[in-house]
Structures are given as C-alpha cells and as structure tokens.
Design goal:
Elements: H1 11-19, H2 34-45, E1 54-58, H3 64-71, E2 75-80, H4 83-97, E3 102-105, H5 111-115, E4 123-129, H6 138-148, E5 149-159, H7 163-174, E6 178-184, H8 191-196, E7 200-206
Parallel strand pairs: 1-2, 1-4, 2-3, 4-5
Antiparallel strand pairs: 5-7, 6-7
Length: 211
C-alpha cells in the first residue's frame, strides 16, 4: 500500500492560528498519524469491510483512510472541522483514486452542531482514526456515534493507546457494543514513529441489531 499525499507546507503557521482559536482546535489533521495508516492498511487487506456500503469517516485529516476506503469501493462521506483538511483529503483522494469522497464540515466536539447536522440517516459503517486526543473528546464522540451508526452497524476505531480511548471503549461496551480488537505495529511512514515503537490498536465495535 503506497499513497502519494500532499501535506501543508507551513505547519508552524497552523499552530499559531490554533493559539488564537477559543476552542483550541489544534491542527491534528495536518499530520500523517500511524492510526490512519493502520486503519487504511486494514481496509486494504479486507476491502469487504466497506465495499459497496455507505461509509462515514469522522475526522478525515489528509485522507489516508479515505483513499483506502474509496479504493475498496465505499460510498464515502468524510467529515472534518477544518476546511483545509477537507480540501486536502479531496485532492489526495483524486490524486490516488481518481475521485473524491462527499464532504461535510463538522466539528463533532460541538454536540449542538452534531445534533442538527445532515447526518440523519445512520450508516452501516463508520471509520475513525486517531480522534480521541483529549478527555473532552469522549462525550461528544459517544453522542455522535450513537446517532450515526445504524442498528447492526459497525464503528472501526484506530488509536495508539491514549487514555481517552480506553475510557471511550469501556463506555461503548457498557452501552452494549461488542468489541473485537487487533494490533498493528507498522512500519509507519515517519521513521520517528518506528523508532518509538508505536503500536496501533484497531477496534471493531458492533452495535446490536435492535440498538
């Protein structure tokens, strides 16, 4: 699996702009994270996860997972809070797959915005890679997932072992979701991530058919 991905040139400027953001939405989208690579690799190995299905991605970033999902035949809608992320995701998808996913600008940390978003028709598959950075991410993501994953549907979550992810996963199981997990240890595009020995966990969370 080899993708050609365009990234922002001036990352320092993005950091400076985030400092002036009252919500402190840091430009996580501008990095290539191991979780996105791991989830993309999992989809590439087993394309029937998404093939021929309506799929939603939460936090598309630069489009690594989106490219894999489109290649596998997903009918894909991507979301991100940053318009720059949506633009680069579309560009990178077009460059690698020849088509772009549908897009929706959405800050799912804002529960009020998520509640009135156009995401009213639940999806059978939802993808999310490295979306749980801080404790404040947990409750909004729980709220949104309950609304966007349909009965019998699945959430595929990739994460590198941050504490908020463990809290989220426990909460999902308490709500009756069934979890299967596997580990992916790279190799990663960034040599520094390989040096650190980063391991990504990929979780398949299945909702009850009557949920």
């Amino acid at each position: 699996m080899a993708f050609q991905v365009v990234r922002p040139v001036n990352y320092d400027r993005l950091i400076d702009e985030a400092a002036a953001d009252p919500e402190q939405n840091l430009p996580y989208w501008a990095e290539i994270w191991p979780s996105g690579v791991g989830l993309a690799a999992r989809i590439a190995r087993t394309p029937d996860i998404v093939a021929g299905q309506r799929v939603l991605e939460l936090g598309c970033g630069l489009g690594i997972t989106a490219i894999a999902a489109l290649e596998a035949g997903a009918e894909l809608l991507v979301t991100d809070y940053a318009p720059e992320a949506l633009a680069l995701c579309a560009h990178n998808a077009g460059r690698n797959v020849g088509r772009a996913p549908a897009q929706l600008r959405l800050n799912w940390r804002d529960a009020a915005q998520a509640a009135v978003s156009p995401l009213t028709d639940p999806f059978p598959v939802v993808l999310a890679a490295d979306v749980l950075y801080e404790r404040r991410d947990i409750e909004p993501l729980l709220f949104l997932v309950e609304h966007v994953v349909g009965p019998g549907g699945e959430l595929w979550l990739a994460e590198p072992g941050r504490a908020p992810a463990a809290i989220f996963l426990n909460a999902m199981q308490e709500r009756g979701w069934v979890r299967e997990s596997e580990r992916c240890d790279g190799p990663w595009p960034d040599p520094e991530d390989n040096r650190k020995g980063i391991v990504v966990s990929i979780h398949r969370l299945r909702r009850a058919a009557s949920g």
